[in-house]
Amino acid sequence: MNKDFISNSSPSNAALPKSSTMSDEGGMNRRTMVRSGAYSYRPPSPPRIHIPVRKAEDIFLWPSYNLVDSSKLTLEEYNIITGNRLQKSTDRSVRWRYEMRRESQLILDYLFLGPTSTIRDHDFLKREAITMLVVVRDSRAPMNLASVNTASETFNISYCYVDVDTNHLVPAFNQIVNVINSHLLTAHNNTGGATQGKVLVTCTTGNMLSPPLVAAYVMFMFGQEMLDAINFVSVQRFCANFDDEAKGALLTWQELNKASVAVARRRRLERENEENGHAPALASAEGTPNTKRGLDDMMDGVEGDLGSNGDHDRGGYAPFLDVDQ
Q1: Which residue in 101, 244, 275, 283 has the most C-beta neighbors within 10 A?
Q2: What is the pTM of this model?
Q3: Which tens digit of pLDDT belongs to each residue from 274-291?
Q4: DSSP per residue over 55-100, as a string?
């Protein structure tokens, strides 16, 4: 039986090939081995998500109820919130000035995005008829702001704090959708449709915590994918920052939305068939066959893989090389 003697190395010199010696119990037939590649001493990082630079042109969002999870919003509620109005971006990237980061920008015709300092601008709140303040804050340091209480008492404005964990943003995405939509529906119902609510979403700088939540709201309400929603927000508030954690969370949110929309569409189709006295649908809402597999289909071919150690996928890669050969 051979004994392996492998030298230790620190992360600082992990990229250098380290040698080791192998010998039998009698000390004969000593061979020198070197690493085939660098060692890594940390968990693998997720791949970076690149956001391509978009041309300086307007972006349009068309309201479409077919792109929304119907189990969370009825058609009537969706029409009240969006008004079936076309949303058009205003490209501020070319004419952006540094001072504009201290202001709030209109993202949707009923939603502003900016820093919390704009809450103290009472002329702005009055001019834009803001009806709700949403303050996004780090869950590790939740602080109530006196400016929020003052604005709420002065203009009878509703407000809500959304605490976010930067490592787990998806729950905050659900919360921001519910908070904004509930307020808009309440404002409509309380005034008999005479008043449309307007929401100001803020964080300390208006650049880090709140932009991903606004992008998530755009994705949910208008069926947009991550790249399109980020571009829609970024061209209007050019200083908005989306780090890798935010982009990864938005990508997860995108797939969750697609799945929930597909499930809701399938259930709606089955319900309509039952109401019309038709047999249960064997095809999905997209018109494709039912692709559910049975247990036998799923286990087909698995028996042959149970004894495999997966080495056939390595492509002939060996972690060490014998330099004496």
Answers
A1: 101
A2: 0.74
A3: 878 766 554 444 444 555
A4: PS---EE---GGGS-TTTS-HHHHHHHHTTPPEE----SSS--GGG
